[in-house]
Amino acid sequence: MDRFRMIFQYFQSNSESVMNGICGLLALASVKMYTSFDFSCPCLPQYNMAYGLGIMFVPPVILFLCGLILNRQSLLMLEEWRRPPGRRKKDLAVIRYLCSSIMQRAMVAPVVWIVVTLLDGKCLICAFSGSMDPEKFVGFANVSTVQVQQLLAKVPCKDDDELMRNSTSRKAVSRYLRCWSQALGWSILLVLIIAAFLARWLRPCFNQATLLQARHWSNYIDMEQKIFEETCCEHSRLFAHKCILHFFESMQQEIQLHRFSLPREGEGAEGEEDLLRGITDQDQVNKLLKRWYYEKPPLDVS
Amino acid sequence: MDKFRMIFQFFQSNQESFMNGICGIMALASTQMYSAFDFNCPCLPHYNLAYGLGILLVPPFILFLLGFVLNNNISMLAEEWRRPQGQRGKDPAVLRYMFCSMAQRAMIAPAVWLSVTLLDGKCITCAFCTSVPVETLGNASHPHLSQGEIQRVLARIPCKEIYNGQQLIANEVAVRYLRCISQALGWCFVLLMTALAFLVRSIRPCFSQAAFLKSRYWSHYIDIERKLFDETCAEHARSFAKVCIQQFFEGMSTDLVAAHCHLPRKAPADAGEAAEKLLGITNQGTMNMALKSWHRCKPPLNLHPPAFPTGNGQAGEGEPLTHPSAPRRETAAYYSWV
């Protein structure tokens, strides 16, 4: 009874809680990745925007793909989608349910990365410091256009230039951009949380019965796949056992034929003799091992 | 009985203690978020108020909604609210209880954020630095400064390194003043929240305690019922899958027997169990065909009692699933002895 319950709990809890756990781990990993990444803005007019936006958008794509790869349900969904109908009709609601569940979980880590990036501000400062209007900031008013671009591009790099280090205009630009970056980050987070709240609150109002069915059959497909794999594993274990037994028997027969000797009918040592299967000296063992390598038995135990 | 009680206790304690745990974790997370967040006042006249109040009020709202989103009971509440009446009446008191209990737990993390923010003082300093009373605290008679200029100078109070209004009003004086107000607000807020919580807890038993106990019981019941239903469905799906796969393999081996037109050589009695576990698949070609068939042509979701090869196929209707294999085995053994 206990074993049954343990196995059942493993099957039941495995898909949902493992996937939620992986989702949370990826989110934590993305925060850790960001804090350990050494952001280093190039501070050159043409490169700043590419670098800043690249760091903001490329890792989320990578994290999204990782989220899809690590999720067991993606393979399940693809298989269910592409299989021929055969004797079992395909239910599109199940496939849609699996797809939305996979997407939701995979989107958590990228969103965490983007929000953390925006709240920190370095990426946006690097990307958009060159696009600032120099009129707004006191220190850049009387400088030529080309030079102002260069100066604005150097804003993210504090230690680069002696002149720039303590410039109040540099700090003003930096502060301004950071303020916008943080406001954008908090706004995105607010919008997403409101969307998540509405989705959870309003979902039972629409097609609850269909949703329950889709959820049940998606769990069923998952469990069926696991049990099928388990059955195949058990089958292959027994198959292998039989195959090897046949191999040893055939070796034993061959040895008896060559030796023309009758097997010794020892009384007490019968159990041990059975295990030894008539192979009792070094030459025989070597022959058996060589035969096992050069001439594996056919996959047929009928 | 013991198993039932253990399961019941697990479910009962799980919901409450799990939600309390989530609540505590979120409160800690909100303090951690605040200390990790790099507060960066823009020090510009119209932006200060927006930024300061934004940081003061938007994250608590986010944390409040997050408290609802992470609570599994929200979909249960919505489901109970929207379900058709059917044969079970709906009790609005139960719904109210569930909602109140969720809202109370969700309010803790925002309250922690607000307290920490007010006690720290940076937000209020940033938001209200342009409203500092220059007449009382500073030198209002300082000439040559228009109102706009004064606003711009005051807006730079939070940014010490660029502050240039030392003659107008000393930076430390203004910061201390604003921080003092902020901390006073913070402590008042904490006192108010705690007093409210105390009143709610101590006065509630004076009002309709019996109705409260009833609502609490039935809300727990709905939660446990839903969990048990999910558990039963999962158990059913597992048994269904097992039988489906077993019938799939039996169907495969029957097809093979029909195709090859010979009876399979039956293993001796002592190896019967192993042979049965081999599910009639004894060579590579057969296994490959089984795997291909599993993908190309999945069995229908329809568990059936298998048809008998003998004349009295109708007798198989009422019999349970385990019987059918027995007569077949006996027949095969008889023929092989002959």
What features would you highlight for this structure?
heterodimer; A: 302 residues; mainly alpha; 2 domains; 12 helices; B: 338 residues; 13 helices; disordered C terminus
The arrangement of helices and strands of chain B along the chain is HHHHHHHHHHHHH
Helix content of chain B: 55-70%
Share in β-strands of chain B: under 5%
Please give the count of helices of chain B. Answer: 13
What is the total number of structural domains of chain A?
2
Largest sheet properties of chain B? none
Distance between the termini of chain B: 54 Å
Helix and strand element order of chain A: HHHHHHHHHHHH
Name the structural class of chain B.
mainly alpha
User: Mean of the pLDDT scores of chain A?
Assistant: 83
Could you give a short account of the major beta sheet of chain A? none
Oligomer: heterodimer
User: In terms of structural class, how would the helical and strand content of chain A be classed?
Assistant: mainly alpha
- For the largest interface in this structure, which chains are involved and how many residues does each contribute? A-B, 58 and 63 residues
> What is the helix content of chain A?
over 70%
Unreliable stretches of chain B (pLDDT < 50, length at least 5) are 262-270, 307-338
Task: Report the count of strand segments of chain B.
Answer: 0
What is this entry, summarized?
The complex is a heterodimer of chains A (302) and B (338). Chain A starts with a helix and ends in an 8-residue tail after the last helix. Chain A has 302 residues and is mainly alpha-helical.
Describe the structure.
The complex is a heterodimer of chains A (302) and B (338). Chain A is mainly alpha-helical. Chain A folds into 2 domains: 1-205, no CATH class; 215-258 and 274-301, no CATH class. Helices cover 75% and strands 0% of the residues of chain A. Chain A contains 12 helices and no strands. In chain A, helix 2 (47-70) packs across helix 6 and helix 4 (92-106) crosses helix 10 (208-259). Chain A is elongated, with a radius of gyration of 34 Å. The model of chain A has no long low-confidence stretch (mean pLDDT 83). Chain B is mainly alpha-helical and 338 residues long. Chain B has a domain at 1-208. Chain B is built from 13 helices and no strands. Chain B has helices at 2-36, 45-69, 73-82, 92-106, 108-120, 122-128, 134-137, 147-155, 171-203, 209-260, 272-277, 284-296, 325-337. In chain B, helix 4 packs across helix 10. The longest helix of chain B is centred in the C-terminal third of the chain and has 52 residues, at 209-260. Chains A and B meet through helix 1, helix 9 and helix 10 of A and helix 2, helix 3, helix 10 and helix 12 of B.
